[in-house]
Specification:
By secondary structure, this protein is mainly β. Helix content is 0%, strand content 43%. Strands 1, 2, 3, 4 and 5 form a five-stranded antiparallel beta sheet that branches. Strands 22, 23, 24, 25 and 26 form a five-stranded antiparallel beta sheet that branches. It starts with 20 loop residues before the first strand and ends with a strand.
Length: 301
C-alpha cells in the first residue's frame, strides 16, 4: 500500500514453488521462498526498491521456508526437510553472513511456525508426525542454544499450528482440532508457567482452512474461514476473555485461508484472502470505523 492509502501491484520476479515468508529489519524487507529445484531464495527491498532474487543454494533442497527476525538484524529461517520430516534451520548474522543448515531434529507432519518473543527467544511450533500433537523447540536469545523438541501434550491437530507472541512474553498458539466438528483451539504459553490449554476461543468453529492470529487495532484477533466460505473473527477483550465468534459482514467465498498483516499495535487490522473469483481481496478494521467494505486488489496469476 502506498502512503496515501492506494494499493499498487509490482512484479518482483522470481519463480516461486511455495508461499513467501517476509521479515522486516528496520526499513528493509527480506522475502524468502522456495524456488526452482526446491532451493531457498531471498529477495531484499528498501525504500529504493527491490533487488534481484538471490539463490541460497548452500542449504540444499528445502521445504516451505518460514522466517523470523531480530531487531539487531539476525534472521532465522526454518523449514521441514524436503521429502523428510526433520526440522532444519539457517541463520543470517549481519557482517558475518549465513550459517547452516542445522538439523534441529523433530518429526514434523506440518510446516514449522516460528515466533520471536520480546526477550529475543525463538520458539518453533509444528504438528508431530507420529501423534499429530502440538510440538515446539526453544532457543533462549539470539546466541543461546537450542533445547530438544517438546511434546506439549495437546492435540490431535488437523494441520499446522499458528502462533502469536505478545508484549508480555506470552505466546498464544492456535490450531484446528482433528475431530469433528473442527473446533478451533488455543494453547497459552506464559514465561515460567506450564502450558494452559487447549481451550476454545470464542466458540470458534473452523472449516477446511487454518486460522490466522494477529495483534492489530489494539486487540488480539483470530480470523478464519467459516461455513459457506465466509470470514469469521473472534477478538480478545480488555477483560482477557474472547468475544463470541462472529461473521464479518459482506465477505463470502473465501478460496484461501485468510491472513492478516502485522505492524504496530495501533495499526488497523488488514485481512486478506483469495476469493472464488481468483482475485485477492482485503478488508480493514479500525477502532473508529469498524469493518470497511471488502476491496478487490486484482487477479492472482
Amino acid at each position: 500500500m502506498t502512503t496515501p492509502g492506494q494499493w499498487t501491484r509490482s512484479d518482483l520476479g522470481g519463480y516461486l514453488t511455495s508461499a513467501p515468508s517476509v521479515v522486516l529489519v528496520g526499513s528493509t524487507l527480506t522475502v524468502f521462498y522456495r524456488g526452482a529445484g526446491h532451493r531457498l531464495w531471498e529477495l531484499t527491498g528498501t525504500s529504493a526498491g527491490f533487488g534481484s532474487p538471490q539463490r541460497l543454494g548452500q542449504f540444499g533442497q528445502v521445504g516451505v521456508p518460514a522466517a523470523v527476525s531480530q531487531p539487531d538484524g539476525v534472521i532465522d529461517v526454518f523449514w521441514r526437510g524436503y521429502g523428510g520430516t526433520q526440522l532444519w534451520h539457517a541463520q543470517y548474522t549481519p557482517a558475518v553472513g549465513w550459517a547452516g543448515p542445522q538439523d534441529l531434529n523433530g518429526d514434523l507432519a506440518s510446516d514449522p511456525y516460528p515466533v520471536v518473543t520480546p526477550s529475543g527467544d525463538v520458539q518453533v511450533f509444528w504438528m508431530g508426525a507420529g501423534d499429530s500433537n502440538l510440538w515446539r523447540i526453544v532457543r533462549g536469545g539470539v546466541s543461546g542454544t537450542w533445547g530438544g523438541p517438546q511434546d506439549l501434550g495437546m492435540g490431535p491437530l488437523d494441520g499446522a499450528p499458528q502462533a502469536i507472541p505478545l508484549a508480555s512474553g506470552e505466546i498464544d498458539v492456535f490450531w484446528r482440532q482433528l475431530a469433528r466438528p473442527r473446533w478451533l483451539e488455543e494453547a497459552v504459553l506464559r514465561p515460567g508457567a506450564p502450558p494452559v490449554g487447549p481451550v476454545n476461543p470464542g466458540g470458534a468453529l473452523g472449516q477446511l482452512l487454518q486460522p490466522w492470529p494477529v495483534f492489530a487495532a489494539g486487540s488480539e484477533w483470530l480470523v478464519f474461514q467459516g461455513r459457506l466460505g465466509g470470514l469469521r473473527q473472534v477478538r480478545l477483550g480488555a477483560d482477557g476473555t474472547w468475544t463470541a465468534s462472529a461473521w464479518v459482514q459482506g465477505v463470502a467465498g473465501l478460496l484461501s485461508a485468510p491472513f492478516a498483516a502485522t505492524g504496530p499495535a495501533s495499526a488497523p487490522l488488514e485481512v486478506f484472502w483469495t476469493g472464488t473469483d481468483g482475485h485477492l481481496w482485503v478488508e480493514q478494521f479500525t477502532q473508529a470505523g469498524g469493518f470497511s467494505e471488502p476491496a478487490q486488489l486484482g487477479p492472482l496469476s
